[in-house]
Amino acid sequence: MNKRICILAGSPRKNGNSAMLCNEFARGAKDGGHSVETIFLRDKKIGYCLACYHCKKSEGVCAINDDMADILDKINAADVIVMASPVYFYSIDAQMKALIDRCVARWLTIKDKTFYYIMTAAEDSVTVMDCTLDCFRGLAKCLSGSIEGGVLYGKGVYEAGAIKKLPIMKKAYEMGRSVS
Prior knowledge:
Blueprint: E1 4-9, H1 17-31, E2 35-40, H2 54-57, H3 68-77, E3 80-86, H4 94-102, E4 114-120, H5 130-142, E5 147-154, H6 168-177
Parallel strand pairs: 1-2, 1-3, 3-4, 4-5
């Protein structure tokens, strides 16, 4: 069955390693017959949550007028959400954190999604991505009916493009192609 896939790419680098994995996941998903939209957060204006709870009083409309309302519409319309971030101090990057926090405006409407997570890090230790993955899973845990589809760990890559020569690129393609 054709799925609608929304890829939320947090990398601030256009040709960053996590962005490259997103592109391979998208290529595989398209080859698998799915529709894919990739949103590069670096190209969007997403302010941080003000905790004003205007959204609670106005049916999910945020007081901040930026690109987040459109992104939330796309998240709600998707069957599958892919979240990607390079590791910053063992966590997600600022762009992704702002997006996650801004989901508060409509978190009750984001239901029954399958989540995939893509992470990259310069470090190659076993635990380097534990906190990053916990951040992603924390959002999904708050959303009704969320399930996890898969996780990609791109370790030991620092320079933009270093991921290209690693087997994880093929895994990203295969994971995208295997979305069901």
